[in-house]
Description:
The structure is a homodimer of 407-residue chains.
Chain A: E1 11-17, H1 25-36, E2 42-48, H2 52-56, E3 60-62, H3 68-75, H4 91-103, E4 106-113, H5 115-130, E5 136-141, H6 157-177, E6 181-186, H7 193-196, E7 211-213, H8 221-235, E8 238-243, H9 260-264, H10 276-288, E9 295-299, H11 303-306, H12 313-331, E10 337-343, E11 351-356, H13 358-363, H14 382-392, E12 404-405
Parallel strand pairs in A: 1-2, 1-4, 4-5, 5-10, 6-8, 6-9, 7-8
Antiparallel strand pairs in A: 2-3, 10-11
Helix pairs in contact in A: 1-3, 1-12, 4-5, 8-10
Amino acid sequence: MAAAKTGKLQGNALIGQSGGPTVVINQSLVGAVLEARLHAQIGKFYGAMHGLQGILSENLIDLSREPAANLERIAQTPSAALGSVRMRPTEDQCGETIRILKKLGVRYFFYIGGNDTAETARIVDRLARKEKYPLTVFHIPKTIDNDLKGSDHTPGYGSAARFVAEAFMGIEMDNRSLPGINIVIVMGRNAGFLTAASSLGRAREDSGPHLVYVPERAFIREKFIEDVRRVMDRWGRCVVAASEGLTDPSGRLVSTLSARRAVDDFGNVQLSGTGKLGDYLSDAIKEGLADAPRVRADTLGYLQRSFAGVVSPTDAREAREVGRRAVQWAVKGHRSTSVAILREPGPRYKVSYGPVDLKIVARYARPMPASFINRAGNNTTKKFLDYARPLVGKLPTVAFLKGYEVK
Amino acid sequence: MAAAKTGKLQGNALIGQSGGPTVVINQSLVGAVLEARLHAQIGKFYGAMHGLQGILSENLIDLSREPAANLERIAQTPSAALGSVRMRPTEDQCGETIRILKKLGVRYFFYIGGNDTAETARIVDRLARKEKYPLTVFHIPKTIDNDLKGSDHTPGYGSAARFVAEAFMGIEMDNRSLPGINIVIVMGRNAGFLTAASSLGRAREDSGPHLVYVPERAFIREKFIEDVRRVMDRWGRCVVAASEGLTDPSGRLVSTLSARRAVDDFGNVQLSGTGKLGDYLSDAIKEGLADAPRVRADTLGYLQRSFAGVVSPTDAREAREVGRRAVQWAVKGHRSTSVAILREPGPRYKVSYGPVDLKIVARYARPMPASFINRAGNNTTKKFLDYARPLVGKLPTVAFLKGYEVK
């Protein structure tokens, strides 16, 4: 940790959660709250209900009085215990936020979330400095998309990736037993990390997903049909993982290309929460492959970020740690930053934590490295598997009958 | 066990798996194969690849030689290890089946599956008797739909119900943190048991799913919109569980009512594997509720029957046991039947196993009892929860902040 120090502050703290929840976001909340109890510099610890919205409406709770045992149960509970919000505040709202923080005697503001949340943290930090109000602002990272710049990976990704890997292990075994074409849509916006996780549970050479389409590569309908045809010729069945964020070569979302849109939409182009992309890809296969067997498409949906009971132990531990580190660094007087998880070189998985500028986290989404995507743009590489395996933890195993010949 | 005896047979055995797989169907397979090793009456134990299709094409393997340790791993593996099939055989194909069983010296035929599988077993049994070929045919029950007549519940249901319950626990916490309207489509064909399982993880009075629609009650669009409006007025958010098999008062599948169908379908009306029903219900709300917040629909899809890592221990144990019982009863000379799980009266969960006529299992699908559905037809009852809780095992728990007031 080499962040510059700004001098230690004595005062209250406030924390909020923002953006799409994850199954470990409460670990970060609890890590911060329990760590603060070890530091006399922090007085009260306030929780804002539904993030910035809760600050602006002064809908706050006193986390200082939450029993530690209940906090430990909260840490194991999926989704944001304080409630979350999707909000890009105006400068005025950020100014109002500072006014309220001042009134509450808050010197430490912790905001858990993704890029947008980091952007809010950055604006609040900048305004506070402009007003010469001594406030330390820490962004605590969270996103299943794994797209925050400056980090090896992001809390929330490991557990979501574990869910996706287990989902595909089951879908693959299902497809093996009743062969056909199964297309499964995975979250991740503009980053392919979560879709790529579909390949983590492959057990054999013929195991699916046989094709993996990530938003880092333009999606070409004809190539897709050809890819499926090739897999069908080889294995007689096909499992496809496709990212919700796929775009065509002109940059349009594939999920909005369907003819259905014009007929039935009510104005909202949703990236997920509809079956449109899956239906579009199914239809492409039914049109393009004359002899296609049963084609179906499933959309994993919110389960990826909320399923109660599938958690990566590594992810849970690290999510707790980024919350703790933010508080440790804040009370030590470090300047406002985000907390990055860095991977140590070497064969054994080991991480360290370091500061990363709010601006970097806020402004740039991180795509998958090219080395994680095969040349044909329809699968993951061993490099990706090596990267992601330690993050999801030990997956369940599947077994196969040896299949002795009948004599 | 009071089944009539038909005299003991000495010979080989053959087993197959049929219909949609489950995460515990291999428990039944392994239960039967390992039990057979204890009985000298059974010689070779053949496995048919992809059920009846494997018999007809003589695509068989020798299960007698499978190592027990590998079989134990198979038992923990989701989906059908022998491969499955969807096939309603003709009388000719059943006749051909008997010819092949004769050739192989098979005196015991075990067929794992749902209603259609029981029907095949029934026809094969009837033809064998007509030809005076001494063959004992056992149907071993399996279905996530829980719709087999003569049983308290069916192997496969408990684990699928557990998955659905955990999925809704997460979706509910997600919806609580980012309020809106979430509609989730659940499998189950004409039976509402699996959709009803969505209510098993409710933790508080305001916990979702707030509305549960099962196929045993006609779905009325206007009533649905009114129901959602009422929940929104009360809780400011709404989680809906809806069965894929919902029909309107005239008996048409709701999933086929969408305008999209005429425009975009390629001939296949699929009950699941498309986002149609979810999109239709979303659109109904967007049209019917002028002030609706963000509406999304997720379709749980194949995960419900295949997810690697979510298994009810009770379900796994009982699935193993029905396989064992079928073999025990067969070698004792009992007549061809299916194996029913019966629940013993009393406060503690306890089951016994009994025979049930193939005809009864084959011919009648079992709907949810009326006592499991509330009077308004939009929720489950305590009776259902009491019925289903022991079947899914202990669910994860969720915790809530006590939320002490800020002074």
